[in-house]
Amino acid sequence: MSPAKTHINTPPSVSENGHLPNLGSQIGTFQLSSVDPCDPSFTPLLYRQREETFLNRTTQLRHGSYLRRFAKDLSLDIRTLINVKSGINLDDFMLRHGLTGCIVVRQGAILLEEYRHGNTPASRNDVQSITKSFVSTALGIAHREGKLSVEDTVGHHVKELKDTAWADVPLLALVNMTSGVVEPSDEPRPADIPNPMYATDLYPLADPGAVLAWLRTFRKVSEPWEEFHYYNPNYYVLSTIISRAVEEPLEDYMSRHIWEPAGMKYDAYIRTTGAGHVDGHGGLSLTLGDMARFGCFILDGLDTRGKGPAVPADWFRDISQAKNSVGPRAPGANEIVPDFGYESGWWTPPRGHEYHQLGDDGAFAAIGMYGQSIFIVPELKTVVAVQSGYPEASEDLYTRNAEFVAAIIKVLRQEY
């Protein structure tokens, strides 16, 4: 008996003479950056792929050998309790506000962990301005190390800006968005004039001094501390200063002083400028679990054991107490995040009213443009972190997220 023949169906794409079609020139021509970033169908995917979709390059933050492990505590049905006590249905809330992930960690145990729209525990998500809270933490570490002082001026560290509006601005004013320095014109930049912070076809990654040359054109609109201007270039200047003071790339410094000791599970990516340097104000992509690990790392620093970030002893204690959220940075004084104040790269919720508020538990938050957030609640030793794929910025996102976190905290206060 002859062996049975194995029949292989010829793919339709193969020509009759058996030759492969000429597809080589088509391989790899699809670019994620060509997908409409404002189309809600695509935003969750694009936020997961930021290292591929940013016009600029990105660079890595690397985790170390230590892994912060979380236990799981499923004894509390938070889903049902927040629905009963606050009328918030978790599934409806996540759908309505485009949340791609939510995690609640209390005393090192996960009470709730949910993912949507294709995100998984291994999915990095762009967290927008939460990046600032990581960079401000790096500033505190560099200050304590003696590499710089937060009372130093910009001109002391960046000679290229010594004779500009930035020259006499203290670093502490930069991190608090009270530098008093803005772009040379109030008019929106024309679409055909690229922002030197970012690489484009018109503005390639070629001139390492381009961003600082651009910053030299800025103007002074107030003295430091007088006015609050939530202005991203403050953090590029700050990132440049930290990197120069510690004499290494900022991503390497943050890897050693934040990613490794925090026990991050995954590497992260952070956006660079048209000059090839970390821009500092946004563009960080990390996993939901590592967002929670960062929050727990900070909680460690508020604990008497002092195992958190190596910042000055009162750094996060002052933020938790909103000690310096005053004047133009007081809760309710700005129009960016309603009712919140701002302090050293973090948002401070109101407190001390006739009804209980997040601030009464010492809470403070890192908040991103499209609803991403890390809420740290010291009184309950709790971290709530949110990933978002929402395609538009809105004050309502900040307000609803705060209400969502407040509902969770209300449950925890009653149950523990």
How do the strands and helices of this protein lay out in sequence?
Blueprint: H1 43-48, H2 50-53, E1 58-61, E2 71-72, H3 78-86, H4 90-96, E3 99-106, E4 109-115, E5 124-126, H5 130-145, H6 154-157, H7 171-175, E6 181-182, H8 210-215, E7 219-220, H9 233-246, H10 250-262, E8 268-271, E9 284-287, H11 288-302, H12 315-320, E10 341-343, E11 346-348, E12 364-367, E13 373-377, E14 382-388, H13 395-415
Parallel strand pairs: 2-4
Antiparallel strand pairs: 1-8, 3-4, 3-14, 5-9, 6-7, 8-9, 10-11, 12-13, 13-14
Short synopsis of the structure:
This is Beta-lactamase-related domain-containing protein. By secondary structure, the protein is an alpha+beta fold.
* Shape designation: globular
What is the CATH architecture annotation?
A: 3-Layer(aba) Sandwich
First-last Cα distance: 77 Å
* Poorly predicted runs of 5 or more residues: 1-10
Query: What is the H/E order?
Result: HHEEHHEEEHHHEHEHHEEHHEEEEEH
Q: Indicate the CATH class.
A: Alpha Beta
Helix fraction? 25-40%
Fourth-tier CATH superfamily name: DD-peptidase/beta-lactamase superfamily
Please indicate the count of domains: 1
What's the count of strands?
14
Report the β-strand fraction as a percent range.
5-15%
What structural category do the secondary elements indicate?
A: alpha+beta
Physical arrangement of strands within the biggest beta sheet: 2-4-3-14-13-12
CATH topology: Beta-lactamase
What is the residue-mean pLDDT, rounded to a whole number? Answer: 90
Largest sheet: 6 strands, mixed
Task: Note the total helix count.
Answer: 13
As a whole number of angstroms, the C-alpha radius of gyration is 24 Å
